[in-house]
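Hi, can you check this record?
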Amino acid sequence: MSLLARVRDMINKYPLELELDMKPLHTSTPLLESLPLSHALGVPVFLKMEAFQPVGSFKIRGIGYACQVHHEKGAKRLIASSGGNAGYAVAHAGRMLGMGVTVFVPQSTPTWMREIIRREGATVIEHGTLTPPKWQGEKPRPMCLLSMIP
């Protein structure tokens, strides 16, 4: 089996989805060899085209799975804190699963991102600030995902 075939096989396997009774929310994306980068670096370089995901980033893979797990446990609503692609992925997952979604975003979130999240049917709530002077030197905080199970 060629290197490309082995890499494609590894990337397209998503063992966690086997635990769910539903199809994953992400799509299979192409893996393309970049000849310019391969020549420049002297080794084969492959690019996984995650921009082809429904939300334009790889974040739907893990976040979509997490949302599906919460959905299967009976959650009716998802609550997330993120002013970017993670919040967008939660909003998209919630819409696809028929769940309510609230995304808390910092004041620094661009208007266009807020609108994209809203278009997925999520409630967007501005809360707090996140500017470089405030968080520089602190440990990064991960996106928070909560669910409401009746």
Remarks:
- The domain at 3-148 is CATH 3.40.50.1100 (Rossmann fold).
- The longest strand covers residues 100-105.
- The two ends are 49 Å apart (CA to CA).
- Residues 59-72 form the longest helix (14 residues).
